[in-house]
Specification:
single chain, alpha+beta, Uridine Diphospho-n-acetylenolpyruvylglucosamine Reductase, domain 2, Uridine Diphospho-n-acetylenolpyruvylglucosamine Reductase, domain 3, four-stranded antiparallel beta sheet, 36% helix, globular
Amino acid sequence: MMPASLTAGLDWVRAASVAEAVAALAKYGPDAALVAGGTDLYVLMRSNARRPRVVVSIAAIPGLGRIEDAGRTVAIGAALTHSRLAAAPALARFAALTRAASAIGSPQVRNVATLGGNIANASPAGDLYPPLLALEARVTLAGPGSTRGVGLDDFVKGPGRTSLGPAELLTAASFATPEGVFHSGFAKIGLRNAVAISVANCAIFATAAGGKLKEVRLACGAVAPRPIRMRAAERLLAGERPGSELVAEASRAASAECDPITDLRATAAYRRHVVGVLVARLVEAAWRDLEGRAG
């Protein structure tokens, strides 16, 4: 709940459907701000970075807080809170995603902040991005008279910038359900053990066959203008048995793929180093898990 000092003078539209929300965004244009949990908007308004005239709430729209498992595809509604995402039985096998959701903010924040807000905020350090990128997720965008799907890798254009149109809203994120045995994992480094914005974060998705890694997807955040896939490291690992030398080589490749900044939380050099550490840890953990289950 936002304090009265920030909400004074605001008009509210409590949309009962996606169509109503889209219509309100189209009507009020740049004067409108979309909210579900409101945690990101609150920070922007408190710092005077954003002062909307109208707030369009999508929190009560039926279906936007659901998880739909259609067998071959999992879809997560944009209004699902981080706490519900972290505890959802339908997502338990996607450990990277549930662990990332558990690592965001405080329990109070996780109880109101949502998947859609985390994605649409387009922070380079957003913790849900690496797991979703590693799962090759797509987002569904609803606009006036149409709905379209966009790969998450194409959705984020840079810090705070996305491919959302002026009257569009993000309604869901979805990804294909992997076949067979797979491993997913997530790790982050912050300035403290809890309630910390990531200095660097990383997620892995991996499968194995014939005593080797078959498919490897690595994604990292807070180390470039937008969350990125570590393609060079992935190519090194796919089809190989990840011994210590190969893991070290993949770690160096991931560090080289970064384009970090120096800020109050860390230097660019430290971010490059720590990404390599996280990649090595995640690859080693994935291999132990996959090799153990194969036996």
